[in-house]
C-alpha cells in the first residue's frame, strides 16, 4: 500500500503537468500536492484489491475524488468561509497566493475532477455512472449542502448532536462514500453500492468526531492546522456531548461499521487494514 | 425560438426543484433565473435545428452550459475578483446573499452542470464526449485560464490588443465554443467540430469587444450592470485601440465568422438569425 501511495502521488502530480502554466495551476499543484493523507484514494484502492481488481485502474477516479476534496478545503479555508491560515502545516492556498487565485484554483480542481475521471479504462457506461456519483455526492444534495448547513450554524447555533450528525452526513460522509461508490462501479459489484455507501457515511461521522477529539487533545503543531471550529465558536461533538460521551459515540460508530461490513459478502482484508489505521490515527 | 426560450426557462427552473432546500439552492436559483439572454443555449438550439435535430434534445446540455456561465459570473463578481454589485439590473449573488453562499452557489452550479448533462437522451459515448467538452472548455486550459490571465493584468497592465485577444480567446471564447461543440456531438456531425469551435471563439472575441463598446456608449441602466472594467482600471479594446479601431475590428471579426461559416456545408439559417441578433444587440 505504501508503494501504491507513492505511485498515486506521482500520477496525481502528472495530471497537472500537461496544463498550460498559470498562477492558478501553481496554486492547484500547491494545494493538491500538500502532503494529504490520501484517505479516500487508499479506501478506493483497498476495495478494488479486495475485489480482485488491479488498484491502478482506480487512479483516475481516486485522483478526481482527491481533487474534489482539495477544492473543498481551499474554498472552506477562504476568509468568507472558515478563514483558516494553516492547512497541513503550510499556509492555506489564499495565504500562499491570493483570495482570487484560491477561488479559481478550487474551481479548476473541481472542473478537472470531471475531466480526469474520464481517463480511466472503464467503459462509457461506467464513466457515466462515475460522473453521476461524483456530481451527486459533491453537489447541492451532498457535500455542498453540508457546508451550507454548517454555515447556518453561525447564526443559529446547534443545540443537539442529532443536528450536528445531519450536517456531518452531508459535509464529510457523502465524500467519504464516494470511493466506495466508485469501487463498486469499477469492480462491477453494484449490488452492494448502498451498503458500502452507508459504511462511507458512518466513517465520515466517525472521522469528524475523531477530528474534534484530536483538535481538543492534540496541539495544532501535531495536527498541522489551526483549530478553526473552536476559534469560530462552532459547536462540536465535544461541546455538545462532552469528551467522554463523544468518545463513546466514536466506539459505537466503529462497531456499526464493522457490523455493516460483515453483512457484505467477500473478503475485506485490505479495507479492514485501512479502517484500523483510520480508527487508530493520532492526527 | 421565442417559445423555445420560454420552454427552456421552465426546464432550467425545474432542474433545481428536486434539490434539498437550502440557502445555497436559493442563491443558485436567484442567479440562474436572473433574466439572462441565454445566448449560448439559443446558439445550441439553432445549430441543432439547422442539423434537423429536435432542439429539445439539447436542453440538458444547454442547461449545463448556462449553469457554468452563471457560476463563472457569480465567482467573477466576488469582492476578491471584480467586486461587482450589480448584474442584469439586480444585486449580485454575494450582495443578495453573502460571500460564503455565493462561493457555494457557484461551486454547486458547476457541479450540477456535470449532473444534468447526463440527463439527455444521448448515448453513453456522447455523454462522455459532452462531459469532456464541458470540463476542457471551462477548466484550467479554458475559461479559468482566461480569468487567471485577466487577473494578472491588475499588476501587469496590458499594452497591446494581441495580449487582450489572447485573454478573450480563453475567458469568453472557450465557453462560447461549447454550444457548438455540444451541438456537433448531439447531431453526430463531429467532422465539423473544429470549424464550429473556431466560430465560437471568434464570436467570443467579437462579443467582448462589442461589450466594451456598449460599456462606453450606453448607460449602466440600459446595460443592467456596472462597468467594472473601467472602475477596475482594466485595459479594454477601446483603451488600447480607441473606439474607431475597435469598431473596425468588430466588423472584421463578423466577416471572418461569416467566411468560416460559408466553409461548413449545409444550411445555417437558424444560426444566421442568432448571429444577426448578436451582432445588432444594444445591451
TrEMBL record, chains A, B:
KW Electron transport (keyword) present: no
UniProt key word Metal-binding: yes
Cofactors (names): Mg(2+)
Keyword set, alphabetical order: Isoprene biosynthesis, Magnesium, Metal-binding, Transferase
Pfam families, sorted: polyprenyl_synt
Top-level lineage group: Bacteria
Family the entry assigns: Belongs to the FPP/GGPP synthase family.
NCBIfam families: FPPsyn (NF045485)
Protein name: Polyprenyl synthetase family protein
Organism listed in the record: Faecalicoccus acidiformans
